[in-house]
Amino acid sequence: MANPVRGEVAVQIGEVDACLCLTLGALAEIQSALEAHTLGEIAARLAKASPADMMAVLAALLRGGGHGDLAGQLANLPVSPAMAARWITEAFEAAVDAR
After folding, report:
1. CA–CA distance, 75 with 88 (Å, rounded to integer)
2. Phi, psi of 77 (to 5 degrees)
3. How far apart are the first and last CA of the chain?
4. Cβ(94)–Cβ(8) below 8 Å
């Protein structure tokens, strides 16, 4: 179950319910995966991200939400790049809106 106060977003990947969360660890992992140093650089990379970039960001957000095992299986799960993009957007928005 997602905790909106923490900025979590609930998703269903295949048969599994999971949470995405933009933690500081996830943010650091995203910076590394996208070779970006600032939030502006992350935004620019995400605007033209490849499917592989999207999956790397989604995996980081899954780990931030406590689903490292699921993040490791992401390549074998039914997630389209479009769905990943939507979930990534929701996770970043939830992090900004978390109170």
Report:
1. 16
2. -110, 155
3. 17
4. yes
Q: For the whole model, what pTM was predicted?
A: 0.91
Contacts of 4 (CB under 8 A, 6+ apart): 94, 97, 98
DSSP state of 78: -
The neighbour count for residue 26, using CB atoms within 10 Å, is 22
List, in sequence order, every beta strand (DSSP E) within 14-97: 16-20
- Between vectors from CA 30 to CA 13 and to CA 7, what angle results, nearest 5°? 60
pLDDT tens by residue, 50-97: 999 999 999 999 999 999 999 988 888 889 888 999 999 999 999 888
Smallest CA-to-CA distance from 9 within 81, 79, 98 is with: 98
Q: What is the pLDDT of residues 12-61, one digit of tens each?
A: 998 889 999 999 999 999 999 999 999 899 999 999 999 999 999 999 99
Distance (Å, rounded) from C-alpha 26 to C-alpha 30? 6
Q: Which two tokens stand for residue 21?
A: 């969360």
